[in-house]
Amino acid sequence: MKYKIEKNTVQETLILPLYSRKLCTELYPNLYRDETAVRLIDEIDYDFSQAEKNSRSLMQRFGALEVAMRQCDLAWEVREYLKTHPKAAVVNLGCGLDNTGKACDNGRCKIYNLDFPDVIAVRNELLPAGEREENIPCDLNDTAWFAKIDTSNGAVFFASGVFYYFLTEQVEALVQEMADTFPGGVLVFDAANRTAVKMIAKTWLRTAKIKDVGAYFAVSDAPKEIGEWDSRLRVSSRGYMLGYSDLKDPSVSGFFRFLAKVGDGMMKMQIVNIRFSGREQEKKAPVAMKNHKAK
């Protein structure tokens, strides 16, 4: 029996990212493959007709390319960390129905998938935790989840399409608290500048009747802007469309490569890598989430 997801529910928000990853696999098989997404689409009872119609548009297909490159880049960063910390915790922040942790599994690491309780409830039905894997229901801004992660052999945290929905002060507080708790760990995530975030946020901000777009997290010069938060942060960034791949694949048109260049350049679409140095230096900003307890 297929797992039914109704329209206009919180669960429905899991569908579009999942469908995008399935579309990426079909359109750009040499660049990206997500067999889990392909399988899950077949196992879900949902009316995909609108998503299928939208997938024929040029910009939707470029959007699928963006998703493909973002997921590939984050997976590359996770695998790089595992080369030197093979038994590390691999932590997917705001996981949805994404299976990147399992895709990066080296047979020795521990995998944690974190999201809101209602999302994890769906995940437990469709993607139950496997060996060395745990699905954890939580609010990322409530750091009680820190205690549930075994970081004795290192930790690499990654977030895909998550921090656009956070206020800047929330991201800063979370990063500082992670620096306190996970010295030697790494956090990688995608980000963009204010112009791009306004475009990304256009629909959901209007729905939520939010007017102050400027309060939401955006970054242009990540090493400078994020590095100023705390002296223990070692920050680097690379364009996420062309920073890891030249996109010279037959499935990618010259026009899409041009748009990718614009995305990395004018929009500052990037993968941010933050290493927590662990050195006890004077902080440049207060830790807003210090001693934050579970409600």
Question: Main attributes?
Answer:
295 residues; alpha/beta; seven-stranded mixed β-sheet; two-stranded parallel ribbon; 10 helices; 9 strands; disordered C terminus
Task: Summarize the entry for a quick read.
This protein has 10 helices and 9 strands.
Structure description:
The chain is of the alpha/beta class and 295 residues long. The protein is built from 10 helices and 9 strands. It has a 7-stranded mixed β-sheet with strand order 5-4-3-6-7-9-8, sandwiched between helices. Strands 1-2 form a two-stranded parallel ribbon. α7 (168-181) links the parallel β6 and β7 (186-191). α1 crosses α2 and α1 packs across α4 (58-84). Residues 280-295 have low confidence and may be disordered.
N- and C-termini, Cα separation: 37 Å
Tally of alpha and pi helices: 10
| Cα-based radius of gyration, to the nearest Å | 19 Å
By DSSP, the count of extended strands is: 9
Residues in helices, as a percent range: 25-40%
Output the helix-strand order.
EHHEHHEHEHEEHEHHEHE
- Structural classification: alpha/beta
In the predicted model, the low-confidence regions spanning at least 5 consecutive residues are 280-295
What is the molecular shape?
globular
Report on the biggest sheet: 7 strands, mixed
Question: How much of the sequence is in beta strands?
Answer: 15-25%
User: What's the overall average pLDDT, rounded?
Assistant: 89
Widest β-sheet, arrangement of strands: 5-4-3-6-7-9-8
